[in-house]
Amino acid sequence: MADPQSYRPSPGTIPTDPGVYKFRDRDGRVIYVGKAKNLRARLNNYFQPPSTLHPRTRQMVYTGASVEWTVVASEVEALQLEYTWIKRFDPWFNVMYRDDKTYPMLAVSVRERYPRAFFYRGPKRKGVRYFGPYSHAWAVRETLDLLTRVFPIRTCSNGVFNRHESLGRPCLLGYIDKCAAPCVGRVDEAEYDEIVQGFLGFMSGRTDQLVRGITEQMQEASENLEFEKAARLRDDLGAVKKVMERQTVVLGQDTDADVIAFDTDELEAAVQIFNVRDGRIRAQRGWVVEKTGDEPGASERLEEGQADPTLPTLMQNFLVQYYSDAVERVRLEQEEDRRIEEQKVRRRGVDQESRAQAKPPLPVPREILVETLPEELTEVSELLAELRGGPVDIRVPQRGDKRALMETVHKNAAEALHQHKLKRVGDLTARSQALQDIQEALGMDEAPLRIECTDISHIQGTDVVASLVVFEDGLPKKNDYRRYRIKEAAGDGHSNDVGSIAEVTRRRFKRYNEDKLANPDEVEEEQTFDDEADESTGAKRFAYPPQLFIVDGGKPQVNAAQEIFDELGIVDVQLIGLAKRLEEVWVPDDDEPVILPRNSEGMYLLQQVRDEAHRFAITYHRQQRSKRMRASALDAVPGLGPARRTDLVKHFGSVKKIKEASVEEIQQVKGVGPKLAETIYTHLHQQ
After folding, report:
1. Exposed, middle or buried by CB within 10 Å (0-12, 13-18, 19+), for 226?
2. How high is the pLDDT of residue 492?
3. Cα atoms in the 13 Å half-sphere on the side-chain side of 486
4. What is the CATH number of the domain that holds 460?
5. pTM value surpassing 0.70
6. Which helix (H) or strand (E) holds 317?
7. Winning range, highest mean pLDDT, from 270-274, 595-599, 631-635, 645-649
8. How confident is the model at residue 260 (pLDDT cuts 50, 70, 90)?
9. How far apart are CA 621 and CA 458, in angstroms?
């Protein structure tokens, strides 16, 4: 790898104009493309001391061997040129929102003489029109089954089609009128093409005309006493409406909008987009991508409830890349459709006028609802307006149905990111590789088959609690989870994570030393804790220590835990700290952190363990806070002790219901006499 200082441009040679820059490696390949309002200020950030750079950015500048730039007239041109270069060079270090290969789609092979509709999952190919993606494979098959009643397009493979063409008789679908049977000449090419165009039109969203046409035909057949035909048309209309009902109405019928939301962690980002046309959700797509580390704010540590500072940049990159790709895809599809139409006209040997087709919906809607505004809102809006050929409104919904839909989209993004992590951790091969990665990175004698992790949760030093989660063979072992109410570090009235980590470590490994001295059979039969401040989701003690103990934090937290290890004589457990800021792994008595590759299985497992400890701590903290707030209104009642407060809350269910109760009803609680009941009633109604 090259030293970044060896190819750093001379001072003053970089212009201060807006532009686009490229990093190349030794072989001249473009490894990263970026844009900047001020090229000099932006590029100088890459040549800071390596320790201040994000790990992925650090890897990029050391992989690079040269940097070059192009000055443009405006920031909008910079956005366009950046997108063009990313598509052209496919740089390794850029975020690429590639087509999602996991969602099933409905495909139509429009290039074939007799196009067929079929279920498809995979990369897109030329000569095939795609609809969806759908959330489940059964949704594609159900849609096909319903629509072939109205549009009897063939769904068989080419092999089946050729076999029945040679036999001279149709397949079962042909006999039950769910296929037009072009294989036996039941319809000619022109008639079959009309069926295909109707199918494509319906799937493209042009449904109103179809529903109106079937309704009119049904009424006409009924008036002419053609009851069998009217019944068939009625069933066809029901099938069409059933397909339409599956596309949920979420907004007003005249609403065309895309709703976009992100969910992120320190390493990755998940994005979901819902396409709403005529008020209905027509499609849903999602991606999970690795962050580049080049986004503003990428090196900041996120606190609880704090918005990710990289979101504006991620949103901007997604909007430019997604809609530019969409416009290009529509253009290619239209060219492909024209070529196919010309081929059909030539093949039929007749001079036909081009059929008037409805204009396809624009890939860029009038309204784009986002969770966070893009970094350069004005420039992005101008670019999208140019792609659409009309104004585009990018905004954050504040209330009503649109805000509710945005929350739904965000939940989908969060679930997608969660499932992405679970998929990696849940795979046996990935788990084995993860444990091996951790063993090699930390220089351990054996793989850490048992991992424990602790995390602290509080709000400004109040209700301080800690969690301890356990993973065995890379999977959570929930019956060994522990929860702690912090005593020593919580009394000073402010946050003291270092002291809390020390307390939890002492209590956990003090118990381990006690367990080692106990009879193994007695340990196995033990059902409760001696320390009433400990709570568990299981009944048994820890009979053996972990190979790896993780504390959430950096060097101060690790050193505090190491002091407890030295005090208790713990020498058979590897101790590390995982800092959220840059996902650095800190080892005791080491001035430099251990950096695992961002995309390694080991890093994903450490993240999963840390996130689970954080989730478990947050859950327990909320329970404690809720319990305290629930009883707070009764705390100042004279003569009412903790036991009676608990009995009152259990009896009535909440303080609000106690306040609504009469003196006689309060007296019904065990241990509450007339005088105390009157005191409680008076106190609650004075507030």
Report:
1. middle
2. 45
3. 34
4. 3.30.420.340
5. no
6. helix 311-348
7. 270-274
8. very high
9. 7
Single-letter code of the amino acid located at 129:
R
| CATH, residue 29 | 3.40.1440.10
| 139 touches 106 (CB < 8 A) | no
Number of domains in the chain: 5
Q: Are 83 and 324 in contact (CB under 8 A)?
A: yes
Q: Which pLDDT score, from 0 to 100, does residue 536 have?
A: 44
The answer to whether residues 197 and 269 belong to one domain is no
Residue found under tokens 């290619």: 332
**CB neighbour list of residue 92: distance below 8 Å, 6 or more residues apart:** 31, 32
Per-residue pLDDT at 660 exceeds 60: yes
Q: Rounded to an integer, what distance in angstroms lies between the CA atom of residue 56 and that of residue 267?
A: 10
pLDDT the model gives residue 367: 92
Q: How far are the Cα atoms of 467, 471, 612, 616 from residue 605, in angstroms, in the given order?
A: 18, 10, 11, 17
Cβ proximity of 575 and 551 under 8 Å:
yes
How far, in Å, CA of 413 to CA of 427, rounded? 22
Question: Which of these three, 39, 67, 96, is where a domain ends?
Answer: 96
Phi, psi values for residue 472, rounded to 5°: -120, 130
Backbone angles phi, psi at 384, to 5 degrees: -70, -35
Q: Tell me what pLDDT residue 358 has.
A: 47
| The residue to which tokens 């970044």 are assigned | 4
Contact 551, 525 (CB under 8 A): no
The residue among 357, 366, 364 whose CA lies nearest residue 334 is 357
Structure tokens at 424: 């990696």
Answer left, alpha or beta for residue 661, where phi above 0 means left and psi between -120 and 50 means alpha.
Answer: beta
Structure tokens at 19: 């532009």
Minimal CA–CA distance to 302: which of 326, 335, 269, 279? 269
Decide the pairing of beta strands 450-459 and 548-552.
parallel
